[in-house]
Amino acid sequence: MKGMGILFLVMLLSIGVATLWDSLPVIKNSVHVVLDPSAGKILDWNTTFGLIIITGFLTFLTTLLQKYATDQSALKTIKEEQKIIQQEMKLVKENPEKSMELSKKSMELVMKAMPLSMRPLIYTAIPFILFLRWFGDYFSVHPVKILGFMSGIWAYIVFSIILSMIFRKWLKVH
């Protein structure tokens, strides 16, 4: 539970950073000094491809963190146990007592996996929030529709989900 306390603290700090973005200019200006000449130039070159490149880079980094900052063998074991429990639940759906017992076991496995899978969030939460706020600023100054219909933030989310599935499969992340 100690790790969950640290995670909670990091999440509070992330919310604080996001909240103070406009009222504490040093945060906003510092991020712009770093990202405008790097990520900003990539987006200025070609918004769609630039966003795919930036999203790919960030998603690849977070996937690597997910793979190497978590106990992959423990997560794999937990997922296998969850599959077995789900199969058993399908067989005993007529028996509410047995179904409830299996549901309780499944919830215990979820609670066991949560601290393991949340660890990388400790390292990525604040940079991710800063990047999202910067994206918001960038796309408010350069309003554009990615692929003709998505705003920049939504395009980032869609590209991130797609690339995350690809990288997780490729890197065998559980």
The ordered H/E elements are HHHHHH
The stretches of 5 or more residues where confidence is low (pLDDT under 50) are: none
The pLDDT mean sits at: 88
What structural class is derived from the secondary structure elements? mainly alpha
Question: What is the radius of gyration?
Answer: 20 Å
Tell me how many strands there are: 0
The N- and C-terminal alpha carbons lie at a distance of: 21 Å
Largest sheet: none
What is the count of DSSP helices, taking H or I runs of 4+ residues? 6
Shape: elongated
Strand proportion, as a percent range, falls in under 5%
- Helical amount: over 70%
Task: Give an account of the 3D structure.
By secondary structure, the chain is mainly α. The chain has a domain at 2-8 and 31-71 and 117-171. The protein contains six helices and no strands. The chain has helices spanning 2-20, 25-45, 47-68, 72-91, 96-141, 152-171. Helix 1 packs parallel to helix 5, helix 2 crosses helix 5 (96-141) and helix 3 (47-68) packs across helix 6. The longest helix has 46 residues, at 96-141. The chain is elongated. The mean pLDDT is 88.
